[in-house]
Specification:
The protein is of the alpha+beta class and 589 residues long. 37% of the residues lie in helices and 24% in strands. It has eleven helices and 26 strands. Helix 10 (486-525) runs antiparallel to helix 11 (531-588).
């Protein structure tokens, strides 16, 4: 069958942070991947009590936005989708626009969770207008990014994006009607609805409405998902079951008039804060700050002249951002972290075991359409992908561990069997060796980058010199007389002579300083110097003499060259004068 209806389980999260060189995002991803390897081994020997021990898959996650020095290269963004400074804009506030964002790398695990936060709005400008905008999240075994040809769509003879999509066979929200995998669709017509569907690709689905109709009634819910921070969670379990949940918390209504504990360490409340509907914050009946809403389920809080941005993880807790990987302050509802209430997450669909193929990778993506005459503006603020499989990293790590990834997995697999102290010591030695090789490889890569930058600087200097020469030649050439202007050439020669004279003075000054230093060294410490140091000083003196001779020779050569140039210019002038006299005689005759 093309569509199925289902059941499953759940799971939260716990991120792993980076290790070294915080200024290099690539190095942070290396460290996170290494930690994931060790975590996988530790989890195998100490099974977790819950799913909270998973680790974040860096290539399939981002906070706020994507940048060139982070994981932007792991994603395909097309149509109107673009990474902005503080968010990833999936759909703009313009009618009849498409958006598309697909991961280029596969998720290679059978037990994982994808959670993302998006905001959606029509800015109140589409009242009374027919709405047909929609957004979709996709999870498919097909590598969409490798088959997508943006150039063919852009250069289609119709010059129309949708017609180009039709020619490419991408008529279902920029995807193929016979797609294989999971589709979670967020619709605006006839009312705001969320639906989940698994398709095996045997039946074509030609529209968003048809997709929703094919979803079973228990896999479709009417939800007002167009909020300032809707959170979506998709869980894939080892038995192949899939669960999709949505949280549409109205942060402003929830925060106004409520009492929260301020946990400076993120765990224990230090004092209580009262958030007023007028945007003021009180502590012990005293106004200590303000608060205001931000997009993406976030709130701006100013307390005691310190500013914080906190992201809600549910109705019970909000955590601080921008803490450089450290545990930052948190808001705890009622002063205690009692966990997320079950009512926060509304389960939209449960797909039964064996829905997700047992031996298949998964590629995730987002796509959407703003609407024909109206529009919906949709932004992605956070994407977190967690792996809970104890036996795999969960994503391709070859860009970090390169050819040594098999060695890492082999050592970690063998480490489980080490029982004696001697074999454990051997394992430590092998792990240390792998870590050393890993560090050496990236140190060499850093040195090569530094060398390439130096070569690039030299090349740019050469290009600058060449441009200066061409510019001087162009300024000296007269197109009216089809020859060089004598006065311009003479001016450039005077400039060259001035530069050479200045450089000679600088060199003479430096040589005199070196001579003076050598004399002072001989007078002050020559008697107490060792033979080796005395030889070094004499060597410096000899090099200074050689340098002086070279400078003298260079000065002589420069003067000779200048004299030759002057003679050449004079000869050219004589030739020009002779030619002019010839034309004058011919004219008079």
């Amino acid at each position: 069958a093309a569509c199925s209806g289902r059941s499953g389980g759940e799971g939260p999260q716990r991120p792993l942070s980076g290790l070294r060189r915080q200024d290099f995002p690539m190095i942070r991803r290396e460290a996170a991947l290494l930690l994931a390897l060790f975590a996988a081994d530790g989890l195998a020997r100490n099974p977790p009590r819950s799913q909270g021990n998973g680790w974040r898959m860096a290539h399939h996650s981002f906070d706020r936005t994507l940048t060139y020095d982070d994981t932007l290269g792991d994603w395909l963004a097309s149509a109107a989708t673009m990474a902005l400074r503080d968010r990833v804009q999936l759909l703009p506030s313009v009618p009849n626009r498409y958006g598309l964002l697909w991961s280029k790398k596969a998720i290679d695990t059978k037990h994982f969770e994808v959670r993302f936060t998006m905001s959606a709005t029509d800015n109140g400008e589409n009242k009374g207008t027919f709405k047909d905008g929609a957004v979709a999240f996709w999870l498919t075994p097909d590598n969409f990014a490798t088959k997508y040809d943006e150039q063919a769509i852009v250069t289609h003879r119709s010059k129309d994006w949708y017609t180009g999509l039709e020619a490419a066979g991408l008529t279902l929200l920029s995807n193929r009607p016979r797609f294989e995998g999971l589709a979670v669709v967020f619709m605006t017509s006839p009312r705001q609805t969320v639906a989940g569907l698994w398709s095996d690709g045997s039946v074509a689905i030609n529209s968003v409405g048809e997709l929703a109709d094919k979803a079973l009634p228990e896999h479709r819910r009417d939800l007002d998902w167009m909020t300032a921070g809707t959170q979506v969670r998709v869980e894939v379990h080892p038995d192949g079951s899939i669960i999709g949940s949505v949280m549409t918390l109205d942060v402003q209504k929830h925060l106004a008039g409520s009492l929260w504990g301020w946990a400076a360490d993120g765990v224990t409340s230090s004092f209580m804060l009262s958030f007023q509907a007028d945007g003021k914050v009180f502590r012990d009946n005293k106004n200590v700050g303000t608060w205001s809403m931000a997009t993406g389920s976030k709130v701006n809080v100013n307390i005691d002249e310190a500013a914080y941005v906190l992201r809600f993880e549910g109705s019970h807790r909000a955590v601080s951002e921008d803490q450089g990987g450290r545990q930052g302050p948190a808001l705890l509802y009622g002063g205690k972290d009692v966990g997320a209430p079950a009512s926060d997450w509304q389960v939209v669909f449960r797909l039964p075991p064996k829905t997700f193929p047992a031996h298949s990778q998964a590629f995730m993506g987002f796509s959407g359409f703003t609407g024909t005459k109206s529009y919906i503006e949709v932004d992605l603020h956070r994407l977190s992908s967690k792996n809970f499989d104890q036996k795999t990293i969960g994503e391709d790590g070859s860009d970090v561990l390169e050819e040594s990834i098999e060695d890492w997995m082999k050592v970690l697999e063998e480490e489980k069997r080490y029982v004696s102290q001697a074999t454990q010591a051997e394992a430590v030695v092998r792990l240390t060796s792998l870590l050393s090789k890993h560090v050496d490889r990236f140190d060499k890569a850093g040195q090569k980058i530094q060398s390439d930058l130096g070569n690039m600087e030299v090349t740019l200097d050469n290009i600058g010199n060449d441009i200066g020469n061409y510019l001087a030649a162009a300024q000296a050439f007269s197109f009216d007389s089809n020859g060089f202007e004598v006065e311009e050439v003479r001016g450039h020669l005077a400039g060259i002579r001035s530069v050479l004279a200045k450089n000679k003075n600088v060199h003479d000054h430096k040589i005199s300083v070196v001579h003076q230093t050598i004399k002072e060294l001989k007078a002050a410490g020559g008697s107490g110097m060792s033979t080796e140091n005395r030889l070094k000083v004499e060597g410096v003196h000899h090099q200074a003499s050689v340098l002086e001779q070279h400078a003298s020779r260079g000065s002589t050569q420069t003067n000779v060259l200048l004299f030759v140039i002057v003679l050449s210019v004079a000869g050219l002038g004589m030739l020009f004068l002779s030619r002019m006299r010839y034309y004058e005689k011919k004219h008079y005759i």
